[in-house]
Amino acid sequence: MQLERKVRLVTEHKNIPKESPMPDFPMKQWNVKLYILDQDGNKHPASCFNKVVYNLHPSFENPHQTFYEPPFTCTNEGWGEFEMSIDMYTTEKAKITIFHDLNFQSPEYKNDHPVVFKNPSQALVQVLRETGPISNDDDAKANKARKAAESKKRKFAFDYEKIADAVVKLGEDDLLHVIQLIHDHKSDDTVTNNDIERGEFSVDLFTMPEPLTKMIWDFLLEQKMVTP
Predict the structure, then answer these.
(1) How far is Cα 42 from Cα 70, in angstroms, rounded to an integer?
(2) Secondary structure (3-state) at 134
(3) Is the pLDDT of residue 138 over 50?
């Protein structure tokens, strides 16, 4: 299972009255905060991470800085711009790494990074549920189509259970004809699986468009495989 989200880094900086080792570059105080975004782009505390480590330029006295509480604010002073890596931990061993360009072009700026949570625990799934859907696209698509199919069943004469029982009893030529109908007339919502190596083909009948379902129903009627 993989879940995709976006994290947002918000960077702020300001000049401070300290002498800089580089006269042309004033001393800055800067901080970076980390958030997770929902589907609408709203910020949320990134409580899906239990630890965040900022890996700064090696010239810093403490280049690896660890934080345990959202928004994982990393605050430092310096005069130079650099790229840092940020390790975000969901467990002691599982981490996601992103890279951040620290620069002083704007007093405040934000950067969004897509991240993927691989095989999350049930506890982590529950936390991520607050910022977006959990089901994959195929499941969501199939569920939507099934709901539409339920209303179809009440309106039209064909029966999905009869279709399913009849199709598996078809001869090879008739079965290939039905598969061809599906290929030619399926919609973007139709969920199919074509395993060429095993020679297996399957379709979620409830996700087929209404005209295709009627074509198959009428064909099965002609073959006397179903009764009205």
Answers:
(1) 15
(2) coil
(3) no
